[in-house]
Specification:
Low-confidence stretches: none
Radius of gyration: 22 Å
CATH class of the largest domain: Alpha Beta
Strand order of the largest sheet: 3-6-2-1-9-11-12-10
Largest sheet: 8 strands, mixed
Strand content: 15-25%
Distance between the termini: 30 Å
CATH architecture of the largest domain: 3-Layer(aba) Sandwich
Structural class: alpha/beta
Shape: globular
Number of helices: 12
Number of strands: 20
Mean pLDDT: 94
Helix content: 25-40%
Oligomer: single chain
Number of domains: 2
Length: about 375
């Protein structure tokens, strides 16, 4: 079970999470919960660091921001004790989350869950601090955006859990952002490939890396609301015999930086960007010029890398991305035609388009993102 920052945002919500964990334990389940930091704690710690230093040391920054999740776990353990049950809080290191040595964006390389197994054998509820681990050099590391999701799924895989429940402030995954589209519908089931495309294209319910881990280890996911008993959305392996929905959802990112680069081979360029831990998304090359996109938060690293290579490059910061995702695209022609016709009728240009077998992604002006989502959701009758 994993609980996000909004689920543990204050003491009362933490006590509510404790009660939910105790209920699961009383039903006979062996309970391991991964907790995020309370509310905006991580953002507040980052702000504090920047007040002290304009360029905080990466190691010390990890030492600082990793405390938020530890606070949540310790407080929740106290609440569970008051409910008459045994619980133990563990840091990422104590839980056996071993990572590489990249501060701020570490990747999990192993899970050594001995202490978790021992606590479960003592009939304790185990609380693990998400978002963090320990490197092979015995340094505290953090996993980057969505790191608590990744922690939870990795633990579920290592422990052989039947399901990994992801509790958040929304009752599941929707056909579009309900804040933009009033008739957006909750989806009962998604396949790993669909959820992976949706997460990488802007759906913020789960982090992309956590879906990759779930797919690799076939860990079933159940996205649910902390605050209601709505059934939520199941995410699982694709079943070939099922008739698949044509389009499962329309997802968006309001900002994504798009770069144009010349004078370098693709191999050299993307090796350098990977070394700098820049998460490249769209790549388009039809001649000597290479076009690629990356998250806004990676802009500084991307700019440093491109300058270090001595390249001529430009970047656009006025674009967002709208993506249609659905496993049924593989067997239904005409989705692209309908997509472009819909956006053209709405007066929305698409300067960059990329596709996969189950996704059509269109970069559009950031100012047009909301209209594009609404128009496509309506055109494909997803409500």
């Amino acid at each position: 079970m994993k609980f996000g920052g909004t689920s543990v945002a204050d003491p009362e919500k933490l006590k509510s999470v404790a009660r939910r964990l105790v209920e699961a334990h009383e039903s006979g389940a062996r309970v391991v919960a991964v907790l995020s930091a309370m509310g905006r704690t991580t953002d507040e710690l980052l702000d504090l660091a920047r007040q002290v230093s304009q360029t905080p040391d990466a190691r010390e920054l990890d030492m600082l921001v990793s405390v938020g999740e530890r606070i949540s776990c310790a407080l929740c353990a106290m609440a569970i004790h008051d409910l008459g049950h045994e619980a133990i809080s563990l840091t990422g290191s104590q839980a056996g989350i071993v990572t590489d040595t990249v501060h701020g964006k570490a990747k999990i390389v192993d899970v050594r869950a001995r202490r978790i197994h021992e606590a479960l054998d003592r009939n304790e509820i185990v609380l693990v601090a998400g978002f963090q681990g320990v490197s092979s050099e015995h340094e505290v590391t953090t996993l980057g955006r969505g790191g608590s999701d990744t922690t939870a799924v990795a633990l579920a895989a290592a422990l052989g859990a039947e399901v990994c429940e992801i509790y958040t402030d929304v009752p599941g995954v929707f056909t579009a952002d309900p804040r933009l589209v009033a008739d957006a519908r909750r989806l009962d089931v998604l396949f790993f490939e669909e959820m992976l495309e949706m997460a990488s294209s802007g759906a913020r319910v789960m982090a992309t890396r956590s879906i990759e881990v779930a797919r690799s280890h076939n860990v079933r996911l159940h996205v649910r609301s902390t605050f209601s008993d709505v059934p939520g959305t199941w995410i699982r392996e694709e079943e070939p015999m099922l008739e698949k929905a044509l389009i499962s959802g329309v997802v968006h990112q309001r900002e994504e930086t798009v770069y144009r680069v010349a004078g370098v081979s693709a191999a050299t360029l993307f090796a350098a960007l990977a070394e700098a831990s820049v998460n490249v998304d769209t790549i388009v090359q039809t001649g000597p010029e290479i076009v690629f996109s990356a998250p806004v938060e990676d802009r500084a690293d991307a700019a440093r890398t491109l300058d270090a290579l001595g390249l001529d490059w430009t970047a656009r910061d006025d674009l967002g991305k709208v993506s249609l995702v659905g496993a049924g695209m593989k067997s239904h022609p005409g989705v692209a035609a309908k997509t472009f016709a819909t956006l053209e009728a709405a007066g929305i240009g698409t300067p960059i388009v990329s596709t996969s077998p189950i996704k059509i992604a269109c970069h559009v002006a950031s100012a047009d993102v909301d209209r594009a989502v609404q128009a496509l959701h309506r055109a494909f009758e997803l409500g």
